[in-house]
Amino acid sequence: MTNKEAVYCKLKELSETMDGIKQCGFTAQEIAEQLSLQRNIASHLLNELTKEGVVMKINTRPVYFLDQKTYLARQKELKLVTQYLLKSDSMDQEKGGRDVFKEVIGCNGSLRYSIEQCKAAVSYPPQGLPLLLVGHSGVGKSFLAKLVYEYAKATKVIEEKAPFIVFNCAEYANNPELLSGILFGHCKGAYTGADSDSTGLIEVADGGFLFLDEIHRLPPTGQEKLFLFLDQGIFRRLGESGRDRQAQVRLMFATTEDPEDNFLQTFLRRIPLVVRIPTFQERPLKEKMELIYTFYKKEAVAIKKDVSISNQAVDILLNSTAGGNIGKLRNAIKLSCANAYNHGPGSKGKDIKVKINHLPKDVLHAYEGVITNKLNGEDVLVSCSEKNDFSYITHDKQNTLHIHEELALIINKLAQQEVTQEEFFTRSLQLFNELIDYIVFHEVDRAVTAVIFNSIQKIVEHVLIGMQANYGLKHYGNSVEVLTYLLVHFIEAKPTNEELSTEKLIDSLSKQYYKEHKISLMLLEAVGKNLDIPFDPVVLVYLMIYIRSINREASLDQANAIIIAHGYSTASSIASVANRLLENYVFEAIDMPFELSAAEIGQKLYAYMKTIDSSRGMIILVDMGSLEHIYQQIVGDFYGDIVMINNISTQLALSVGERILKGQPLEQIAREAVAANVCRYNYLASQKKKPNAIITTCFTGIGIAKKIKILLNKCFVNDEVRVIAYDFDRLKGNGKTDAIFRQYDVKLIIGTDDPKIENTPYISLEDLIMKQGEAVLTSALSRVVNEDIIDKINAEVLKSFTLYNVLNYLTILNPDKIIDQVEQSLYTLELSLGSKFPNNLKISLYIHMCCMIERLLIKEKDVKYTEPDELKECNPEFAKLVKKSFLPIEQFYKIEIPDSEIRIIYLSIKKRMSHFPY
């Protein structure tokens, strides 16, 4: 007995003994348990028996099955089954009302939730719910309101002849009394011009609908009257007192404004349903294309001519930001047809061709893109026949359902190891080809779907190129087109029935084809995000099968391999290069930013291991440090051997990848790859000559050093020697090991103190000024420039390096005046010390004190020192003498000489005077 026969016999047996009061049939799960079958197999067979007419199916949740003959024989006893069938018939009759919205573009997409809210507002007992439609002008609020009214009639919640009254509140917004009178009616004399009693729109709409458009123009007094009616169903005519009137009216409102900002909160609280309608730009691409096609279809039927719209014109209509409403789009399309008709052959031609220049100017001006045929698509052709030939809007589910059901069966058999990998792949590929053949030859009309088809095709092509670069995924000439046909078929389609669990199918197959699943998911996400198009998730199953077919030579039994490295893209880059050179998807990658801990990376590795068949073994390539022990977080939880190799490089990855593709055992791969990747080095001495340089420096800071540099640069006509101002502390602390000596061939140091650099001559600034550095300067530069130039440099130095010239580079002080002031203070200090300063010391102190005063005036930070102990303390008496000597300068410039500067003066004098009493 076959499984199908066994399922039918068991169902018949159970049907004959079922309790007609408590039971209405049996689920696929119950039958499967009785026969020790898988639930999905039992479900598939029961559905086949239902199609053959021998089994009844009751579409409840869960779905019940019953033997047909048994029910007919026991119909009086099986009362619960009869009740369900009667309820089902009632629902089928009611379906006519629900179908009122069936032709609305977006009823199963962007407007699905809005329509469900509208249905709920109509159906809620006893008198429905007030409904507020919110959206930009022209998005279809009035159109949707009329459909709500038609739905209410179709579902028989109102009479067939019930009124539908429409009123625009903006017409009388400036006359509140008249507006209230029109809505609620008025008594004679209620206001000027009210010559008789009048019935209001609420009374006129009794038993039906009153639709108030632009309700935000209703004044607060009108809103207050309305929420009384919404609360209690009563109202009074304007000017009427002592009498409450009643009416059974369903209210709908519409506004283009934000309800929170334009209505009384007491009024808003009485409107439980607020339905927001998206603009044209907010609609998904499929709906926008369908709207454009539908409006052109109406024009084609009206003028009895086929309409051809250029791909560029369609692209502009899809992306124009003008207005953003559907009413404006409809008018733009009507005008484009009129322009094309007028500039074409007119009534004599068989068709009209709409080009860019036929579109309204405001639409063209609002287009933010570049007008090109960027989709490389064909023109969209719209027939003038009344038949709707927008072919990809709906799918014939029944023609492909058997393919999906059989694919589900073969996937489950693979999971239960009832078929081999080869048997599964052969059959699944046959089913894939059968589906593609049906799509290509029976379903998709590329002339109609050119924009969407070509948009998807471009993205698929781009993604496949990226996959080949990063994962070594090879594809063939027709791969792009095949995948595009597949994706177009599954746009918003629901080809599977409720018995086929898509999630289980994907989960089961992804265990076998992890890499194919990852690539399929990336492809689907790329198309979905770029075009804002939802796809039925079952398309992932077909994508996995096809991607496996174009890389069939890749072994499913090869070891898993992953690269983990520090850095934001180090691991990904190595894996990408290796996969591309190996022409196979061998390596996964986990990048480890430095702020991530090894434990966090371990969690990522653990999550990855759960998605793959770890019994094949795992090779983990890491770069260094804590990653070398990351295996400890997974070693006890997964089957399969693990190999860790450190010091990852692209060469090592290629060596490992080649051995994985050969199917070598893990230990052999590790041993041979490590042995073949020994580090080597080549030492290449520098062939480039370092540029010659002179360093200028000053132990009080870099400011004086920069001034010396400026003066020296005037001495060098050409670029034979570079002059560099450099930090004294760094120079003295690092000595010859400082980076400046690796970068330059330093010929000479000029400054206010000798940093004592080995084999590098030094000239003090005061020696230059006192004309005592000529011999050192000539010696230092003799091998750099010829004698004529040295003579010229000496002459320039003698001319430039005078005390006046050096101080002339002060920024804000007058050199003549400051020299006189400093000279007087130094003379006072000499008298106080009882010692006369030598000339070189005086020059040094002149320069230092003048620059010090300028530093204090412009508020530079104090100089800080980390010198030997004698710099930390100086004689207190000496400090008092310095303060006293320079008091006139402090008072004149309104500054205070800090202790750090007194220490510098102390050090300068001590270094240059052999007999210094302090």
Automatic annotation (TrEMBL):
Entry-linked InterPro entries: AAA+_ATPase, P-loop_NTPase, PRD, PRD_sf, PTS_EIIA_man-typ, PTS_EIIA_man-typ_sf, Sigma_54_int, WH_DNA-bd_sf
GO molecular function: ATP binding; DNA binding; transferase activity
Signal peptide region: none
All residue ranges annotated as the PRD domain in the record: 447-557, 813-918
Domain Sigma-54 factor interaction stretches: 104-338
Domain PTS EIIA type-4: 558-694
GO cellular component term of the entry, any: membrane
Protein origin, superkingdom: Bacteria
GO biological process: phosphoenolpyruvate-dependent sugar phosphotransferase system; regulation of DNA-templated transcription
Alphabetized UniProt keyword annotations: ATP-binding, DNA-binding, Nucleotide-binding, Transferase
Name of the featured protein: Transcriptional regulatory protein LevR, contains PRD, AAA+ and EIIA domains
UniProt source species: Propionispora vibrioides
